[in-house]
Amino acid sequence: MNPYIALIAGVLAVTSSAILVKYSTADAGVIAFYRLFFTTIIMLPIFLAARKKAKMRMLKKDLLFSISSGALLAFHFILWFESLNLTSVASSTVLVTLQPVFAFAGSYFIFREPLSLKAIVCAAFSIFGSILISWGDFFISGKALYGDVLALISCLFVTAYMMIGQYVRKRADVVPYTFIVYLASTVVLFFYVLFAGEAFYPYSARNWICFLLLAVLPTNFKKTIAQMLTT
Protein backbone atom coordinates (compact mmCIF):
# COMPACT_ATOMS: atom_id res chain seq x y z
CA MET A 1 0.00 0.00 0.00
CA ASN A 2 1.13 3.53 -0.74
CA PRO A 3 2.47 4.88 2.61
CA TYR A 4 0.52 8.13 2.22
CA ILE A 5 -2.73 6.23 1.74
CA ALA A 6 -1.87 4.08 4.77
CA LEU A 7 -1.12 7.21 6.81
CA ILE A 8 -4.43 8.85 5.87
CA ALA A 9 -6.29 5.63 6.67
CA GLY A 10 -4.53 5.45 10.05
CA VAL A 11 -5.42 9.05 10.88
CA LEU A 12 -9.07 8.46 9.98
CA ALA A 13 -9.10 5.32 12.14
CA VAL A 14 -7.65 7.17 15.13
CA THR A 15 -10.04 10.12 14.81
CA SER A 16 -13.03 7.78 14.86
CA SER A 17 -12.32 6.85 18.49
CA ALA A 18 -13.60 10.02 20.19
CA ILE A 19 -16.65 10.18 17.91
CA LEU A 20 -17.66 6.60 18.69
CA VAL A 21 -17.15 7.13 22.44
CA LYS A 22 -19.27 10.28 22.34
CA TYR A 23 -21.97 8.46 20.36
CA SER A 24 -22.18 5.66 22.94
CA THR A 25 -24.39 6.10 26.01
CA ALA A 26 -22.47 3.64 28.23
CA ASP A 27 -20.19 4.61 31.12
CA ALA A 28 -16.53 5.34 30.38
CA GLY A 29 -15.25 2.18 32.09
CA VAL A 30 -17.72 -0.03 30.21
CA ILE A 31 -16.79 1.47 26.84
CA ALA A 32 -13.10 0.97 27.59
CA PHE A 33 -13.68 -2.61 28.77
CA TYR A 34 -15.57 -3.72 25.68
CA ARG A 35 -13.15 -1.93 23.38
CA LEU A 36 -10.23 -3.93 24.82
CA PHE A 37 -12.30 -7.12 25.27
CA PHE A 38 -13.29 -7.27 21.60
CA THR A 39 -9.76 -6.25 20.60
CA THR A 40 -8.33 -9.19 22.57
CA ILE A 41 -10.85 -11.60 21.02
CA ILE A 42 -9.89 -10.41 17.53
CA MET A 43 -6.18 -10.80 18.31
CA LEU A 44 -6.50 -14.26 19.89
CA PRO A 45 -6.31 -16.29 16.62
CA ILE A 46 -3.24 -14.28 15.54
CA PHE A 47 -1.57 -14.93 18.89
CA LEU A 48 -2.36 -18.65 18.80
CA ALA A 49 -1.12 -18.97 15.22
CA ALA A 50 2.23 -17.35 16.09
CA ARG A 51 2.76 -18.91 19.53
CA LYS A 52 5.35 -21.47 18.32
CA LYS A 53 7.78 -18.89 16.99
CA ALA A 54 11.02 -18.47 18.90
CA LYS A 55 10.46 -14.77 19.51
CA MET A 56 7.12 -15.51 21.16
CA ARG A 57 8.99 -16.30 24.35
CA MET A 58 9.35 -13.30 26.65
CA LEU A 59 11.68 -12.61 29.53
CA LYS A 60 10.03 -12.46 32.95
CA LYS A 61 10.81 -8.76 33.33
CA ASP A 62 9.37 -8.03 29.88
CA LEU A 63 6.20 -9.91 30.82
CA LEU A 64 5.86 -7.77 33.95
CA PHE A 65 6.51 -4.61 31.94
CA SER A 66 3.86 -5.69 29.41
CA ILE A 67 1.27 -6.24 32.15
CA SER A 68 2.12 -2.83 33.62
CA SER A 69 1.75 -1.33 30.17
CA GLY A 70 -1.72 -2.87 29.90
CA ALA A 71 -2.74 -1.32 33.24
CA LEU A 72 -1.55 2.10 32.06
CA LEU A 73 -3.50 1.70 28.82
CA ALA A 74 -6.64 0.80 30.80
CA PHE A 75 -6.51 3.95 32.91
CA HIS A 76 -5.66 6.03 29.87
CA PHE A 77 -8.93 4.95 28.28
CA ILE A 78 -10.95 5.44 31.49
CA LEU A 79 -9.69 8.99 32.00
CA TRP A 80 -9.92 9.97 28.35
CA PHE A 81 -13.43 8.60 27.86
CA GLU A 82 -14.50 10.35 31.07
CA SER A 83 -13.03 13.62 29.81
CA LEU A 84 -15.15 13.31 26.65
CA ASN A 85 -18.22 13.46 28.91
CA LEU A 86 -17.03 16.73 30.43
CA THR A 87 -15.45 18.71 27.63
CA SER A 88 -15.65 18.95 23.84
CA VAL A 89 -14.35 16.25 21.51
CA ALA A 90 -11.91 18.72 19.95
CA SER A 91 -10.42 19.88 23.28
CA SER A 92 -10.14 16.38 24.72
CA THR A 93 -8.64 14.86 21.58
CA VAL A 94 -6.08 17.63 21.08
CA LEU A 95 -4.91 17.39 24.69
CA VAL A 96 -4.79 13.60 24.78
CA THR A 97 -2.66 13.51 21.62
CA LEU A 98 0.12 15.57 23.19
CA GLN A 99 2.04 12.34 23.78
CA PRO A 100 5.09 13.61 21.83
CA VAL A 101 5.60 16.37 24.41
CA PHE A 102 5.73 13.89 27.30
CA ALA A 103 7.67 11.45 25.12
CA PHE A 104 10.35 14.08 24.45
CA ALA A 105 10.83 14.57 28.19
CA GLY A 106 10.84 10.84 28.87
CA SER A 107 13.24 10.09 26.04
CA TYR A 108 15.64 12.75 27.26
CA PHE A 109 15.60 11.93 30.99
CA ILE A 110 15.13 8.13 30.80
CA PHE A 111 16.72 7.01 27.52
CA ARG A 112 19.17 9.94 27.32
CA GLU A 113 18.19 10.62 23.73
CA PRO A 114 19.21 14.09 22.48
CA LEU A 115 16.48 16.51 21.42
CA SER A 116 16.74 18.60 18.26
CA LEU A 117 15.88 22.30 18.17
CA LYS A 118 12.94 21.47 15.90
CA ALA A 119 11.54 19.02 18.48
CA ILE A 120 11.86 21.59 21.27
CA VAL A 121 10.14 24.30 19.21
CA CYS A 122 7.29 21.92 18.26
CA ALA A 123 6.87 20.89 21.90
CA ALA A 124 6.72 24.54 22.96
CA PHE A 125 3.98 25.24 20.40
CA SER A 126 2.05 22.19 21.58
CA ILE A 127 2.23 23.30 25.22
CA PHE A 128 1.17 26.83 24.26
CA GLY A 129 -1.77 25.42 22.31
CA SER A 130 -2.88 23.25 25.24
CA ILE A 131 -2.75 26.32 27.52
CA LEU A 132 -4.98 28.21 25.10
CA ILE A 133 -7.49 25.36 25.01
CA SER A 134 -7.59 25.06 28.80
CA TRP A 135 -7.81 28.82 29.21
CA GLY A 136 -10.84 28.91 26.90
CA ASP A 137 -12.52 26.06 28.77
CA PHE A 138 -11.87 27.87 32.06
CA PHE A 139 -14.29 30.56 30.94
CA ILE A 140 -16.83 28.01 29.68
CA SER A 141 -17.16 26.02 32.92
CA GLY A 142 -15.16 24.31 35.63
CA LYS A 143 -16.56 21.05 34.30
CA ALA A 144 -14.90 21.56 30.90
CA LEU A 145 -11.62 22.50 32.57
CA TYR A 146 -11.77 19.33 34.68
CA GLY A 147 -12.28 17.36 31.46
CA ASP A 148 -9.14 18.99 30.05
CA VAL A 149 -7.16 17.96 33.15
CA LEU A 150 -8.37 14.36 32.80
CA ALA A 151 -7.32 14.37 29.14
CA LEU A 152 -3.82 15.57 30.06
CA ILE A 153 -3.43 12.92 32.77
CA SER A 154 -4.71 10.37 30.26
CA CYS A 155 -2.04 11.59 27.85
CA LEU A 156 0.61 11.03 30.51
CA PHE A 157 -0.58 7.43 31.02
CA VAL A 158 -0.59 6.61 27.31
CA THR A 159 2.89 8.12 26.93
CA ALA A 160 4.19 5.84 29.70
CA TYR A 161 2.45 2.93 27.95
CA MET A 162 4.18 3.77 24.68
CA MET A 163 7.61 4.20 26.27
CA ILE A 164 7.34 0.81 28.01
CA GLY A 165 6.42 -0.65 24.63
CA GLN A 166 9.48 0.96 23.08
CA TYR A 167 11.64 -0.67 25.77
CA VAL A 168 10.07 -4.16 25.61
CA ARG A 169 9.83 -4.29 21.82
CA LYS A 170 13.63 -4.22 21.54
CA ARG A 171 13.55 -7.87 22.61
CA ALA A 172 9.97 -9.13 22.23
CA ASP A 173 7.92 -9.77 19.12
CA VAL A 174 4.96 -7.46 18.47
CA VAL A 175 2.35 -10.25 18.61
CA PRO A 176 2.94 -11.55 22.17
CA TYR A 177 3.61 -8.06 23.49
CA THR A 178 0.44 -6.56 22.04
CA PHE A 179 -1.74 -9.50 23.05
CA ILE A 180 -0.47 -9.50 26.65
CA VAL A 181 -0.94 -5.74 26.92
CA TYR A 182 -4.52 -5.88 25.63
CA LEU A 183 -5.34 -8.91 27.79
CA ALA A 184 -3.94 -7.25 30.93
CA SER A 185 -5.82 -4.06 30.09
CA THR A 186 -9.06 -6.02 29.67
CA VAL A 187 -8.62 -7.68 33.08
CA VAL A 188 -7.91 -4.35 34.80
CA LEU A 189 -10.96 -2.77 33.15
CA PHE A 190 -13.16 -5.72 34.13
CA PHE A 191 -12.36 -5.21 37.81
CA TYR A 192 -12.69 -1.45 37.46
CA VAL A 193 -16.21 -1.77 36.03
CA LEU A 194 -17.07 -4.34 38.71
CA PHE A 195 -15.93 -2.21 41.65
CA ALA A 196 -17.22 1.04 40.15
CA GLY A 197 -20.70 -0.48 40.03
CA GLU A 198 -21.10 0.11 36.30
CA ALA A 199 -23.33 -2.27 34.35
CA PHE A 200 -21.85 -4.76 31.87
CA TYR A 201 -25.30 -5.11 30.23
CA PRO A 202 -27.92 -4.60 28.85
CA TYR A 203 -27.12 -2.11 26.10
CA SER A 204 -28.76 -1.12 22.86
CA ALA A 205 -27.56 -2.28 19.44
CA ARG A 206 -26.13 1.21 18.93
CA ASN A 207 -23.79 0.74 21.90
CA TRP A 208 -22.68 -2.75 20.86
CA ILE A 209 -21.86 -1.43 17.39
CA CYS A 210 -19.80 1.36 18.98
CA PHE A 211 -17.94 -1.14 21.18
CA LEU A 212 -17.10 -3.36 18.22
CA LEU A 213 -16.10 -0.50 15.92
CA LEU A 214 -13.81 0.88 18.64
CA ALA A 215 -12.02 -2.46 18.70
CA VAL A 216 -11.81 -2.73 14.90
CA LEU A 217 -11.03 0.80 13.70
CA PRO A 218 -8.98 2.88 16.16
CA THR A 219 -7.36 -0.14 17.84
CA ASN A 220 -6.67 -3.15 15.58
CA PHE A 221 -6.81 -1.33 12.25
CA LYS A 222 -4.60 1.48 13.59
CA LYS A 223 -2.10 -1.08 14.91
CA THR A 224 -2.03 -2.80 11.49
CA ILE A 225 -1.43 0.52 9.70
CA ALA A 226 1.37 1.40 12.14
CA GLN A 227 3.06 -1.93 11.45
CA MET A 228 2.80 -1.34 7.70
CA LEU A 229 4.38 2.10 8.00
CA THR A 230 7.31 0.82 10.10
CA THR A 231 8.19 -2.19 7.92
From TrEMBL:
Any Pfam family: EamA
Occurrences of domain EamA (ranges): 4-134
GO cellular component, one term: membrane
Membrane topology, as annotated: Multi-pass membrane protein
Record field: transmembrane: 28-50, 62-81, 87-110, 117-138, 144-162, 174-194
Keyword line: Membrane, Transmembrane, Transmembrane helix
Highest taxon listed in the record's lineage: Bacteria
InterPro entries (alphabetical): EamA_dom, EmrE-like
Record's subcellular location: Endomembrane system
Keyword Transmembrane helix applies: yes
Family recorded in the similarity comment: Belongs to the EamA transporter family.
Protein name: Membrane protein
